[in-house]
Amino acid sequence: MLSHYDYELPSDLIAQTPLRNRSDARLLVVDRKTGKFQHLHVYNLPSLLKPNDCVVVNDTKVLPARLVGTRKKTGGRWEGLFLAFDSNRLWRIIGKTRGKIQPGETVQLQTPEGHVGFALEFGTKCHDGSWIVKPQTDDEPLTALEQVGWVPIPPYIRNGRMISDDKEFYQTVYASKPGAVAAPTAGLHFTPQLFNAIKQQGMAVVSVTLHVGMGTFKPITVENLHEHPMHSERCSLTEPTRSALLNCKASGGRILAVGTTSVRVLESAPDLQPFEGETSLFIKPPYQFKNVDALLTNFHLPKSTLLILVRTFGGDELIQEAYQEAIRKKYRFFSYGDAMLIL
Fold first, then answer.
1. Phi, psi of 99 (to 5 degrees)
2. Domain locations along the chain
3. Which of 111, 148, 260, 326 is the most exposed place for a label (fewest CB within 10 A)?
4. Minimal CA–CA distance to 56: which of 328, 229, 244, 287?
């Protein structure tokens, strides 16, 4: 039941800014065998792994997807989010403004630097509430988005208002494949130095891709979890990654998923076969994990699909206790917050 996944969080524990040194984040280590907790830091991660282990990260890159502009017809403020584009360079977006926007209207976009950008011409409204719009520019979609897009900071961080640091810190250091509208936040803690320390001890680091979509943040509106229509997200697992994972398993190593997004890819791959497509996997009790042995994750919102996944993996009562321990010890929560390692 959804209400089972609620908890009270003091608002001052919601991290509003990133740490200057990513790996200085605190790390709550949860041992499922003993039920005990350790309080360390992310930079201690190499000492918690074994030489045959394999670390799996999500190499998606966050797009500057937040859009801000003015309706030419009314002069009213408009805010939106870029979702995708098609072969005709038409964009699919969602947006909000006072009143109802009509097909044929245009919105003049504003850049994060305060300059006037190009306009969007609204076309068709889709059944899910999104719009197909035509950007009034000749630039390629991703190039155009870089000109006018803002970092899509979640609303619980400064009411979604970006600062200059967000351009660097709301992106993993290994991000390489553009497509996400939100960061895979567990990966935000990694630095090149931390990766070097992991590799020097014999652990492999491989990547999968899952482009985080808006569905990740869609609230669950039904009490019965089996009635929740789980969103789908684009993802892939390559042959080199599969080979490394199978070698890890064969040598007795553990697969450590960095973040719930990596978990969804790994658990969506039958027998770890390479694939590219969509996953709508909703991990909830009594799901039995096939491929993931350990999980590094941030602390997630109450009543979210991400929290349900983590409690399913770590054990319901134990992870509830871990969250209460984190609150007592004043860990920082959510996207820019601290981390938990479940072994």
1. 80, -170
2. 2-62+167-342, 66-150
3. 111
4. 244
**Cβ distance 241 to 206 under 8 Å?**
yes
Q: Which of 26, 56, 29 is nearest to 244 (CA)?
A: 56
At 271, list the tokens.
Answer: 């027998």
Give CA–CA dist 64/188, Å, rounded: 16
Which one is the CATH code of 2-62+167-342: 3.40.50.300, 3.40.1780.10, 3.90.1860.10, 3.40.50.1820?
3.40.1780.10
Using alpha carbons, list the distances in angstroms from residue 307 to 157, 174, 299: 19, 25, 8
Q: How far is CA 90 from CA 96, 104, 136, 212, in A?
A: 19, 14, 10, 20
Is the pLDDT at 270 greater than 90? The verdict is no
CB contact set of 192 (below 8 Å; sequence gap of 6+): 173
Indicate the burial class of 192 (C-beta count within 10 angstroms; 0-12, 13-18, 19 or more).
exposed
What's the rounded Cα separation, in Å, for the pair 332 and 26?
8
CA distance 230 to 319: 23
Q: What is the residue-averaged pLDDT of the chain?
A: 95
pLDDT in tens, 172-224: 999 999 999 999 999 999 999 999 999 999 999 999 999 998 777 678 889 99
Q: Do domains 2-62+167-342 and 66-150 have the same CATH topology?
A: no
Of 23, 13, 10, residue with least CA distance to 258:
23
The CATH code for residues 66-150 is 2.40.10.240
Helix (H) or strand (E) holding 96: strand 91-97
| pLDDT tens readout for residues 14-62 | 999 999 999 999 999 999 999 999 999 999 999 999 999 999 999 999 9
The whole-number pLDDT of residue 214 equals 78
